[in-house]
Amino acid sequence: WITGLHDAVSQLHMHAVMLTDIQTRYSKLYWQFKWQELTLALTGGSFTGLFAMYGMDLLSSSTATGGMIVAAMGTTTVVSTGFLVWYHGQQLHEWQVLASKRDDLFATFQRTHGRAIQEGDEYVAALWHRIR
C-alpha cells in the first residue's frame, strides 16, 4: 500500500513539475504579447494626441482636414490594436494546442527532468513511460 502511495505521489509530482513549466512558458508569452499590445495602443494614442494638440496648427488650410486626420489616426490605432489582440489570441490558442501534443510534452519532460535523464534514473524513466 505504501509503495502504491509513493508511486502515486511521484506521478503527481511529475505532472505538477511539467504543468508548472508549461504554465510558466505560456505566461511569459502571454505577457510579452500584452506588452506589445499596450505599446502599440499607447504609441498610437500619443501620436494622435500630439497631432491633435500641435499638428493642427501646422495645417493652415482648415480645421476640418485636421479633424479628419486626427479621426483617421485614432481609428487606425484602435483597429490595429484590435487586430493585434485578435492575432495574439490566435497565436496563444495555437500554442496551447501544440503544447499538448506528444512531442512538446516530451520536450517539456526533457527540460524539467534533464538531470534525471542524464544520470540514467530508471525510476523517472519508468514514471514517464506510464504517464505518456
Polypeptide structure, described:
There is one protein chain. With 132 residues, the protein is mainly α. Helix content is 92%, strand content 0%. It is built from five helices and no strands. It has helices at residues 2-58, 63-99, 102-112, 114-119, 122-131. Helix 1 (2-58) packs antiparallel against helix 2 (63-99) and helix 1 (2-58) packs across helix 3 (102-112). The longest helix is centred in the first third of the chain and has 57 residues, at 2-58. The mean pLDDT is 88.
Helix/strand class: mainly alpha
Count of distinct strands: 0
How widely separated are the two ends?
A: 24 Å
Name the average pLDDT: 88
Q: Please state roughly what percent of the residues sit in beta strands, choosing from under 5%, 5-15%, 15-25%, 25-35%, 35-45% or over 45%.
A: under 5%
Q: How are helices and strands ordered from N to C?
A: HHHHH
Poorly predicted runs: none
